[in-house]
Amino acid sequence: MIKNMQNYKYKFSVAPMLDWTDRHCRYFYRLMSPNVMLYTEMVTLGAIIYGKFDYLKFNLKEKPLSLQLGGSDPKQFKLAGEYIKDRGFTEINLNIGCPSARVQKGSFGACLMTEPDLVAECVNVIHRETNLPITVKTRIGIDNEDNYEFLYNFIDTIDKKSICDTFVIHARKAILSGLSPKENREIPPLKYDRVYKIKEDFHDKNIIINGGIKNINDSIDHLKKLDGVMIGREVYQNPYILTEIEREFYKSNNSPTRKEVVVSMMNYIEDELSNGAKLNHITRHMLGLFHGVPGGKKWRRFLSENSYKKDADLKVLENALTLTEVNV
Question: Is 164 a catalytic residue?
Answer without folding.
Answer: no
